[in-house]
User: Which sequence fits this backbone?
């Protein structure tokens, strides 16, 4: 199967659908091994393996309006929709683009340039700067391409003002990194003694 | 940095999805008699799925050969699809820097250049670690970097230094501008290799 083989691919990409590909690849491999096994058994013993007798007898006796055929048709239709969804639903980007520094930052010695920050890196960066805000006891973050959500714990009873400060600080820091677009920050603050 | 089989997977999922959907829909249409109503040549809902004798069909020796070849092809397809899922770096092997081999050859290992780039990046303030990869050719090199910076680092400053020192230095060494550069930024809580800000603690006594 053809791969990129030395060609450059974008650092910011959508999911590669490795899990459905691995499942289908394993099923294809298993089907291939079963067919080879059956053919070799026929060559060695002179008769087809016993495990093929069941499907063969079922196919010989079954009619098109049999419940088993309905079930097989429905299963194949559902499988087809699932595979098409796996192929066509685009999925989320793994990273967000960063703008190169404006003051002579674009290297004259280079052509096209792609700078990205992964969603995990954005989450870590946001959580780390959130923990620098006075009043924050601990912080975790999750990030998508357009938003960062912070889960903050604090010893303060009144959390409204801290929430606003956390969002302001994180938004300022994310803007400073050059992310384009800047993910929108949101925070859930829990008061904990 | 590593390359995945995204396009390959989407293409094969699409092909197999269309085949499964078409097969399933045709089976359902045959099962409820719609196919027969549309064309009398198609089997009726009450007719058997297999009209002939399967014993006779599978009896000739050439059927065994067909099954064997089909099994090998399907198995090889499945195995190669599984192997294609392994993420690959696909680096350039060796850059050939000479113009005319008759007057001498100059070869440069792309991994050595990438290592030099990594060493230079690791000296920048705020950088925790880095990985560089060169692809393309000596005339049209592509540089891809994964740079892990400390969570307090000034990312724009790191990018500025890379664009004004690291990339021009590599370009000078290769005597050609880079065709394309890619930078992937990761964040770590570990201390930077150079230019680290040290956290201090103390007690204020009044």
Assistant:
């Amino acid at each position: 199967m053809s791969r990129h083989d030395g060609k450059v691919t974008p650092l910011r990409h959508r999911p590669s659908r490795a899990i459905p590909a691995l499942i289908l690849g394993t099923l294809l491999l298993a089907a291939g091994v079963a067919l080879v096994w059956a053919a070799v058994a026929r060559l060695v013993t002179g008769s087809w393996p016993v495990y093929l007798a069941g499907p063969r007898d079922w196919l010989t006796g079954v009619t098109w309006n049999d419940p088993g055929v309905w079930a097989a048709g429905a299963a194949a239709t559902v499988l087809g929709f699932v595979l098409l969804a796996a192929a066509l639903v685009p999925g989320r980007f793994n990273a967000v683009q960063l703008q190169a520094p404006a003051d002579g930052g674009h290297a004259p010695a280079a052509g096209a340039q792609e700078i990205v920050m992964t969603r995990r890196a954005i989450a870590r960066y946001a959580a780390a700067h959130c923990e620098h805000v006075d009043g924050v006891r601990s912080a975790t973050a999750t990030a998508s391409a357009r938003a960062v959500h912070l889960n903050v714990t604090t010893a303060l009873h009144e959390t409204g003002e801290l929430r606003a400060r956390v969002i302001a600080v994180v938004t300022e820091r994310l803007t400073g990194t050059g992310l384009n677009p800047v993910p929108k920050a949101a925070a859930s603050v829990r008061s904990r003694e | 940095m590593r390359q995945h089989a995204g396009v390959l997977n989407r293409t094969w999922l699409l092909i197999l999805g269309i085949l499964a959907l078409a097969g399933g829909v045709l089976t359902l249409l045959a099962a409820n008699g719609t196919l027969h109503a549309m064309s009398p040549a198609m089997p009726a809902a009450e007719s058997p799925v297999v009209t002939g004798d399967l014993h006779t069909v599978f009896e000739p020796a050439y059927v065994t050969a067909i099954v064997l070849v089909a099994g090998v092809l399907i198995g090889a397809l499945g195995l190669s699809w599984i192997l294609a899922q392994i993420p690959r770096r696909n680096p350039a092997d060796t850059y050939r820097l000479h113009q005319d081999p008759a007057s001498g050859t100059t070869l440069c290992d792309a991994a050595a250049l990438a290592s030099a780039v990594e060493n230079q990046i690791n000296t920048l303030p705020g950088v925790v670690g880095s990985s560089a990869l060169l692809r393309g050719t000596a005339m049209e090199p592509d540089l891809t970097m994964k740079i892990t910076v400390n969570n307090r680092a000034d990312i724009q400053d790191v990018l500025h230094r890379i664009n004004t020192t690291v990339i021009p230095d590599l370009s000078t060494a290769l005597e050609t501008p880079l065709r394309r550069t890619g930078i992937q930024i990761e964040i770590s809580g570990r201390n930077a290799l150079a230019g680290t800000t040290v956290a201090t603690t103390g007690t204020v006594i009044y």
